Structure formats: C-alpha cells, structure tokens
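Hi W., the adenosine-5'-triphosphate complex you wanted:
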Amino acid sequence: MARLLIVDDEKNICHSLAIFFASLGHQTQTADSAEQALKLLAQFSFDVVLTDYRMAETDGLELLRRIKARQADTLVVLMTAYASVEGAVAAMKAGAHDYVTKPFSLEQIRHIVERAVQLAGLRAENQALRQAIDDIPMLGSQSEPMMRLLETARQAAGSEATILLTGESGTGKNVLARQIHRWSRRAEAPFIVVNCTTLSEQLLESELFGHVRGAFTGAVKDKPGRLEVAGGGTVFLDEIADLPGALQTKFLRFLQEQSFERVGGSNTIRVDARIIAASNRELEAEVLAGRFREDLFYRLNVIMLRMPPLRERREDIVDLAHWLVKALGVRNRRPGLGLSEEACRALLRYHWPGNVRELRNALERAAVLSRSDLITPEDLPDSVFREPAASHPHPGTSATLEDVEREHIIHVLADSATLEEAAAKLGINVTTLWRKRRRYGLD
Ligand SMILES: Nc1ncnc2c1ncn2[C@@H]1O[C@H](COP(=O)(O)OP(=O)(O)OP(=O)(O)O)[C@@H](O)[C@H]1O
Ligand SMILES: [Mg+2]
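Structure:
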C-alpha cells in the first residue's frame, strides 16, 4: 500500500483515478490545483504524486519543480496530452519519475504507478539499511571472552549501576555504550555523549553541568548542561581519563548525590541520569600517576567491562567483516558487494592494532575501490599484508598496551606523508593523533 496524491483540475478525472487506486488498496488524496497540492504536501507525506501537466493556474511542471525543491524523494508522474510531449521531456529533465500521455488506459496508469510505488519502497528500505550500519552493530560473537562480556553488559544494562568501559581504541566502546542504553529501561529517553577530550575545562564544565547567565563572558543566558538534558536517560562520558582535576571533584559529587549546581549558579539541581564512562587508557595507571582521583575511579568502577582487542577475538573477524561489507556496500550504493575467500584469509592473518575501527576503515576503502562485486586481497590496504615489524612487540610480551600503541604510531607516522593520512590509517581522528603524539613525546 502506498500514499498517492492525484492532482488534476478536472475534478471527475481526479475522482475516477482516486477511486481506481483506492480499489487497488492504496491510500489516495486529491487536489484540483497545484496550490492545493502543495498545501497537502506540506501536511502529509506521499510516496507518489500523479499530476496533470496542463492546469489552469500553476502547471504540472512548475508543481514538479516545487516538489523537487522541497521533498526530492517524492516520485512525480506527469499526465500529459499528446501535443505536449516536448513538455514531457522537460518534465523528465526536471526530475519527473515518469509520464503518461493522454488518453491512457487504467491498465497503463496502474502499471506506471505500481512501478513508482515499488521504487519508493526500495528507497525507504535502502535508507533504513544505510542507517543500520551506524545503529545496529554486530552483537553476536563466537569468542568466549566477548560472549561473556556481552552477557554481563546485558545484565548490567538492566540495573542502574555506573558502568566503566575500557579497552584499546577502536574496540567498540562507543558502540557498546549505546547498546547498553538500548537494552536498559531508559531506552526511550535520551542517550547523550560527552567527550571529555575535545573541550577546554571551562567549556566542558558548562557542557556537563550547564551555566547561568553572566557566569562567564559569552554566557548570555541560562543554559542547562548535558546531565540535565539527559534527565531520565543515559550520559556517556567518553575518554573520562581526560576529565580535568577540578571537574573530577564536581563529577564525583554528582555520582554520590545526583546533584550539582550550574556554573555560576547557586540552585542545587537534582538529576536522574545513568552514567556510562569509557577510557582507552588504563585508569588504574592514571590513578597511580596521580592524574585521576582514586575515589572517582572506585565510584565509576562499579561494573567494569573490558573490550577485548580484535586480535584476542579472531573468531569474530570473518563474521564482522561480512557484516561490515554488507552494510558498507549498501551505504556506498553497492548492495551486492561481497568478500572473497582470499580476502577473508588475509584479514585473518593480520593483527589489527586499530581493532574493529581499522577493519571497518579497510573494508570501507575496499567497498569504494573494488571494481567487481567481490572484494579481493588487492582491494585491501597494504598495511594488512605487512608483518608486524620487530619493533612491534607481540601481545604476550612484557610490553604494556601503551608501548604497543606508541610503537605502532611511530611506525604509521613514518609511513605517512601527513598527519591526516596517518590518522586515517590508524582509524582515529587527527585531534586524537595529535594528542597521542604529544603524550608519547613524538612531536
Ligand atoms: N560490534 C560491532 N559491529 C559493527 N561495527 C562495530 C562493532 N564494534 C565496533 N564497530 C565499529 O568500529 C568503529 C570503532 O568503534 P567505537 O567508536 O565504538 O570504538 P571505541 O572503543 O570507542 O574507540 P576509541 O577508544 O578510539 O573511542 C566504529 O566505526 C564502529 O562502527
Ligand atoms: Mg570511543
């Protein structure tokens, strides 16, 4: 069933067509002028508009142009008299889906409309799929530690406990945080992400807790913070290790009392928000180094979930790759895209220091570059075929995660012409790379 709008200034034609399409199970509305049609289009959404070409005031071509300017997705079919075939050509150029010349049989018009309806359905489906890649992660796993982690995450989602997600960059902490929110009873309420790295201390404080007018230069009116905006929902504090000292104290108090004051304000605000925090640094190490409050660490660490790096869940590489290729294929308008056996084998041999993000980036590149419908090893980036260099400590040696990351960054930086290129290879954004470079003393 589709929603059709039929436009013709001859009322009897309008009504006959409306009755005919209604009898085929479609939802129909009619308009006897372009103006009336535009009014209806502003109120309701239609899959297909069937309009007469020649109408008293605004003609069908002009109506088509206005529809395309506002709702490019609406399919428009024009009905033209034989004499205006040139007009029909102009119509196709202006973005009409199809046209039919008068007089036409009901069978003819039915055929044309059904085809448009089919296309509208396909489009909606594609759009949903395209959205799915970011929204629906692959949650199945064949790997023992990952299965256990997912099980715990699902259980924890049902509670109100604060959750701390740790694990290397690109392992899927953001993805899991969002999923925990979806599993929780707060699913219908907002899920709000606050990245503790990207903002200055002052901005971050106001972002989290809000401010009152006049609190600082530029604070021209009262503004609620993310904790308030999320009321009843979940706040995801990403990169919590970067939360500045003074804010750690204020945030600790929020965790203990569920209350705080806006910047510059004196009213105490109570908020019911569930906290999920994530860090790709070992927070214990940050505590030992005196950079992170120990009491805050314990408050956050009620339930800790450590995302395993991809090399520790090799059983999932092939399934993840197929999942990603399917989703990325749709996103890049190549819905038939698949992954060859040899490409799978190459993916399995590689150690994936950038984890799922690196896998996704490699496949996205392949989805764009691949010349056939099957991704082959040639479509994969060179890094996938490189042996981990001797300077790459293997997991299991005494090297810390930070050593591994540092070495990998050195390696990639040496191999890249620009910081942007290195960041793309690493699967992190340039700001993060810049920060890491400084942290590791590489700049
Ligand atoms: N289970 C999954 N299914 C599909 N895609 C995934 C999955 N896990 C991760 N990804 C993809 O991998 C990429 C990295 O995931 P995410 O941003 O959650 O990592 P992260 O652990 O938060 O990394 P960082 O520490 O750098 O912030 C994203 O593009 C995400 O779509
Ligand atoms: Mg993240």
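DSSP finds 18 helices and 16 strands in the chain.

W.
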